[in-house]
Amino acid sequence: LPDPPCGLLTADSARSLVDSVDAFLFDCDGVIWKGDKLIEGVSQTMELLRKLGKKLVFVTNNSRKSRRQYSKKFRSLGLEVTEDEIFTSSFAAAMFLKLNNFPPEKKVYVVGEDGILEELKLAGFECFGGPEDGKKNIKLEADFYFEHDKSVGAVVVGLDQYFNYYKMQYARICISENPGCLFIATNRDPSGHMTSGQEWPGAGTMVAAVSCSVQKEPIVVGKPSSFLMDFLLKSFNLETSRMCMVGDRLDTDILFGHNTGCKTLLVLSGCTALPELLDASNKIHPDLYTTSVYDLVGLLQN
Ligand code: PLP
Ligand code: CA
């Protein structure tokens, strides 16, 4: 492999990386799994890192599931991961509202799926929209007037396979007409592995549609925003300088690592291929890169 402006993971650099960190933050899609398929060697890698006393945390931008639903997914893939080790962009949206003292009498309109609704409800917020509104149609007749709930104080936009014109209008009208209404995006990934073999439009697509209609930028709570890190640090006794973010995307995972002061390891098992990493136009450089997390096992045991 050629020499990019970051180092290839070697036996020496793997050893010094492991010695210099207390925790590994793993991105999920492209690192742990691809869609619903486990990536080879993940379970052996997790076992080794746990044996070495490392804390493992999982951070996903995919908002379609809640932490509870993700712990089920981990278990179904044969990985023992508890809910409190999982940080999703759906959870981040709920925690953002909580941390910002979102008034309990206000409602949240959701352009997204069940994971966001579940996390908002668990945090005690009243919310609506979601898959249910995917069934709603509007008739664009000349005298039609679109009614909306004036008590909506925040709109959360995430990946939504039921996205439609009704939801776009609901989100647009709340953000532009309800005074002080927050516009929150779970994440802006342009695409994601909705299925194992293919990428599909990601939450960034829905966010861009709503953002264009209101001519406003959202508050992003998932990677690369450092918002999630505050929760992580409250939950565990960790220091970011002694953490390593492992991910497959430069503009979310590696940037998240840079934004929060973590060490960074890019794996080529997901959406970034070597030519993109090496391209002169790429300005986001991980500290280290390697083929997949499984390399840690081979390099550390030799
Ligand atoms: N959002 C959606 C809808 C996805 O399908 C994916 C990947 O499958 C992602 C986000 C990115 O997830 P992660 O942060 O785990 O790579
Ligand atoms: Ca990823």
Keywords, please?
single chain, 302 residues, alpha/beta, seven-stranded parallel β-sheet, five-stranded parallel β-sheet, 16 strands, 21% strand, binds pyridoxal-5'-phosphate, binds calcium ion
Walk me through what this model shows.
The chain is an alpha/beta fold and 302 residues long. It has eleven helices and 16 strands. The chain has a seven-stranded parallel β-sheet with strand order 1-16-15-14-2-5-6, sandwiched between helices. A five-stranded parallel β-sheet has the order 8-7-9-10-13, with helices on both faces. The protein has a two-stranded antiparallel ribbon with strand order 3-4. It starts with 6 loop residues before the first strand and ends with a helix. The mean pLDDT is 95. The structure holds pyridoxal-5'-phosphate and calcium ion (CA). Pyridoxal-5'-phosphate is lined by residues 27-30, 60-62, 64, 159, 187, 189, 192-194, 202-203.
Short overview:
The chain is α/β, with parallel strands linked by helices. The protein has eleven helices and 16 strands. The protein is elongated, with a radius of gyration of 20 Å.
Low-confidence stretches: none
Strand content: 15-25%
Small-molecule binders here are: pyridoxal-5'-phosphate, calcium ion
First-last Cα distance: 20 Å
> Helix segment count?
11
Overall structural class, as computed from helix and strand content, comes to: alpha/beta
Largest sheet: 7 strands, parallel
Calculate the mean pLDDT score and round it: 95
Residue share in helices?
25-40%
